[in-house]
Amino acid sequence: MKVHSLPAKSVAHAFTLVELLVVVAIIAVLAALAIPAISSASLKAKQSATASTLKGMGTALNLYAGENDGRLPGPSVVAIYGYARNPPRSTDTAHLGQYLAPYLGQKADDRLTVCKGLQNPALSRKIQNDLAQPLAQFVKLDAVSTTQLEDFRLWGDWALTMADAAAVTNPPKRMQSLSSKARGAAIICTADQQSWGSAQANVNLLPASGSFGGKRLWLFLDGSVSGPVTNTLMWFR
Q1: pLDDT at residue 39 is higher than 70
Q2: Sheet containing strand 79-80, strands side by side
Q3: Has residue 195 got a pLDDT over 90?
Q4: pLDDT at 66
């Protein structure tokens, strides 16, 4: 008589506590190695996007000058916000965005709206898009004396509103008449707590000192953009 043997029961193998701890430790090590790389890649992406924005502002500035007797836009305040109106009203804040908005894709509909060409991608989405927070996203650079730059009133007399700007007697300089040093001057940089002024409302929401590892990006008068350099108020090539 043929006897059939029953199949042996399969025994499930469970992870021991030691094995689980080893797996967790390996995952933790891999995560620790990956996070800095991801953070670095994210920082470089933001830096590249911000540099592209600055180059766009430089192009818009040259287009403005080409249609306005070769003069730089202004007069205006130091802060450059991420919003503008096209065309601006006389009561609007006279920041560079109000002059450059038509050259940065801002539709002529008389509404105060976010202008993508004036946004700093390195800042939070809330700062970029919240009109209720009047935070500078970039800063217009001014020489403070003739020892820093002989034609230091590049942007004309300081003005708070567009009405004030229209009334000044000292208009911005013509680009073709600037000195060789002025042609190598940085004219716009990324905003932070030091560049915009610590007394300004909500300035604590900005980076303490530069958007990229404590440094700033700079747009030069010739339209070029420099990577992070020193945190001085103005810089020359």
Answers
A1: no
A2: 79-80, 138-140, 186-190, 216-220, 225-229
A3: no
A4: 96
Q: Using CA atoms, how far apart are residues 169 and 129, in angstroms rounded to an integer?
A: 35
The dihedral of CA 117, 123, 124, 128: what is its sign?
negative
| Residues 80/43, Cβ–Cβ less than 8 Å | no
Q: Quick check: bond before 134 cis, omega within 30?
A: no
Q: What is the pTM of this model?
A: 0.82
Q: For residue 211, which of 73, 35, 54 has the smallest C-alpha distance? A: 54
Tokens of 181: 């040093």
One-letter identity of residue 153: R
Beta strands in the chain (DSSP E): 79-80, 83-84, 113-114, 138-140, 186-190, 216-220, 225-229
Per residue in 59-101, pLDDT tens? 999 999 999 999 999 999 999 999 999 999 999 999 999 999 9
What is the secondary structure of 153-222 as a DSSP string? Answer: -TT-S--SBHHHHHH-SSPPPBGGG--HHHHTBEEEEE--HHHH-TTSTTGGGS-SS-SBTTBEEEEETT
**Which tops the pLDDT comparison, 184 or 28?**
184
Structure-token match 């404590």, residue found: 214
Q: Which two tokens stand for residue 12?
A: 């499930």
